[in-house]
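Figure 2 data, in text form.
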Amino acid sequence: MVVKLDKAVLLVLDVQNDFCPGGKLEVKDGDIVVPVINGIVNRFSKVIATMDWHPKDHVSFASNHPGMKVFDSVDVNGVNQVLWPDHCVQGTKGADFHPGLDDKYFDIILRKGTDPLWDSYSAFYENDRKTATGLEYYLKGLGVSENYICGLATDYCVFYSAIDSVKTGFNTSLIIDATRGVDVPQGNVKKAVDDMKLAGVTIVRSQDLAA
């Protein structure tokens, strides 16, 4: 019998085809996280997965900004927005979970980035840093005290979700071998991990969660 972690939730962030090798916004070795996540997902009584779920006219797509290119930055209502290739467009294969990901344990799937005018890196807030997704209140309603975070990508959605998890009052751990980063600009993954540590995020490895 597998002993489940009490009052802890696993947050599986954006393990989607477009972020894996061959995808529109490929994260190097992004698919390596799949077997790691599959090996720990049954340790948790609650598992929440997120998906980028963008409309075609999304503000984060470089294609929607004439004269701009991928990885340029623009100001969107006072918020710095990195421009990305078109990715995780609603209803496309690229937006699907990686086919090897064991999603039968997922209790809730949270789709984010659905507003064409705002990106949404964090599982807790839109990028305006004001509009809540409702995840905080759902978790607190369940009596959850600790979040374990994994998925893609370390320096964007994982980073912002982990920081917001701490800010909203949860003990927060990053499962370091179950995440990979974009690393744009170069060195961004190391900076993200260092900043998460400074914010109070605990760094663990999947073997630390072995039953």
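Caption note: Residues 24 and 87 are 6 Å apart (CA to CA).
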